[in-house]
Amino acid sequence: MNYFILLAVSYLPHLLAYRDFSTHTPYDYARGDITEAKWSKKLVPTRIYLLARHGSRHLGDDEAIGMNDIIDKILSEMDVENQPAWLRNWERPKYTEDKHLVPQGMLEHYHLAQRYKQRFPALFPDYYPTRYHVRSTFRIRTSQSASSFMFGLFEGTGPLDNTSTRDNVSTNGFQPVGIYEESRDEDVLLRFMDNCPAYENSPITVNYYSEVNKLQKSDHYKKLILDPISERLGFTLTVEDAENLYNLCTFEHVSPTESNNSSFCEMIPRSAFALFDYEKDLSRYYSSSYPNKLGYELSCVLLQDLLSQFNSEKPVAALRFAHSETVLPLVTLLGINKDEDIMYTWDKEEFWSRATKLSEVDPFAVNLGFVLFKNSSSGDEIIKVYLNEREVKVPVCESVEGCTKDELLAIVHSTQGKCDRSLMCFGANSTEDEISETTTETNDDSSISARRVVSEDLVEAAVAAKLADENKVLLGFNLFIIMTVLSGLCIVLIGFVGMNIKKIISDDGVSGYHKMPFLDS
């Protein structure tokens, strides 16, 4: 029996699914639980401002085409005898190309709303249009997310119930909710990155994918991704093939049902997943996070919106539904999960333990919750910040309880022109902040080498170290199982001795044994 336990444990790393898929990570893989949030008894929640990305969605046109291409290649070039059993009987689904929410994405927001309402019931009273200000972008996936969230808040509480006069209609207390949106050209709040020439034309934005291109051309991408996957499949893969296969694997986690329960993830070794994850993080870093100063400073308009809502006389729940390109810049502006020099070095610590790991910071349905509390004793106000349902510390805020309005306003004023969008986007010098330090495409090999994000000499060591760490965990788990089994045997042996020792030690001819003092109890 022990042999089979140890055998099962030895395969543990292969049985546990990899769960980090950069910005395409399902929300449940990364979230906390807001219902467990705690605060001082003197603090009373009074207002809420929630900014959320849309939930898990279908892939786009190019991704769907690529997924079908790699499936065709696997079916035509992989030897039939080497094909996994599931693939022989698997029916290929029609991969939707509209980027609308999958059912899992709807549920992510539905359950998120219910958890927030459970923890902050006073902040979510019965619906009335003036009590809620709900806004999404013009994209359907964000309005779907808003609808799913509001349904989670008001399920069964609305005026449309079973008293409907139409036959065979059951609305179960549905509550219609108004959702405000603006066109792409006019939405400077939730799509601040659009219609901003200084951002769109800056070298760091234009060349945001250049570091990914360098990584894909490196020997380590070949050694850690292309070679091992090619060996598993029995034919040589291109970079495009590998990326398409990774998208197939990602979609299996995003929408298992619509994937018809495929298992393409099994074709990718665990050592390759971490490199894929980092590769996907790279491009988002340069477009929306710390390397792109203008890109994240533009999000100051969200803090202005938050402060405006919190300073208004009418208590309104402000709920905003947007995109990764909206939420991640604000996370960055607040200084949450900041790495030092993540854009220049890739050693073991920063590669495996980087704070700006987007599978944790920016998954589908990522959300920033700002809750305004009032101290019942002093009357002072404090704002707590929750990222994916976990309270986080904003570095510039001095109190351990949270941030003051003035501290958040100071962040706004620290941006270019004190958050003057006209100056940021159209001013004569609006693109000069970080351009001199950004990564740009160049044919100068020495320049590329000097600014390379990925230090290729350390990649292989980092992966080896990570696998070694996994082996240490596995060894420790094996030893735990062995010690547990041995401890169990010792307990059984002690019990057996305890049951029979009275018969072994005897000085009473009548009863056959003498009661030992330590056995009396």
Summarize the structure.
The chain is α/β, with parallel strands linked by helices. The chain has helices at about 1-10, 10-15, 60-75, 85-90, 105-120, 140-155, 195-200, 205, 210-215, 220-235, 240-255, 270-290, 295, 300-310, 325-335, 350-355, 360, 405-415, 420-425, 445-450, 455-505, and strands spanning about 45-55, 130-135, 315-320, 365-375, 380-385, 390. The chain contains 21 helices and six strands.
Task: Describe it.
By secondary structure, this protein is α/β, with parallel strands linked by helices. It has a six-stranded mixed sheet. Strand 4 and strand 5 form a beta hairpin. Helix 5 packs across helix 6, helix 9 runs antiparallel to helix 12 and helix 10 crosses helix 12. The longest helix is centred in the last third of the chain and has 49 residues.
Q: Any idea what the radius of gyration is? A: 28 Å
Give the end-to-end Cα distance, rounded to a whole number of Å.
Answer: 35 Å
Instruction: Label the structural class.
Output: alpha/beta
Q: How much beta, percentage-wise? A: 5-15%
Mean pLDDT value: 82
* SSE sequence, one letter per element: HHEHHHEHHHHHHHHHEHHHEEEHHHH
The tally of strands reads 6
Question: Looking at the structure, what is the overall shape?
Answer: globular
- The helix tally amounts to 21
- Largest β-sheet summary: 6 strands, mixed
Q: Helix fraction?
A: 40-55%
The parts where pLDDT drops under 50 for at least 5 residues are 3-15, 344-348, 430-459, 465-475, 496-521
Strand order of the largest sheet: 2-3-1-4-5-6
List keywords for this structure.
21 helices; 8% strand; alpha/beta; disordered C terminus; 521 residues; disordered N terminus
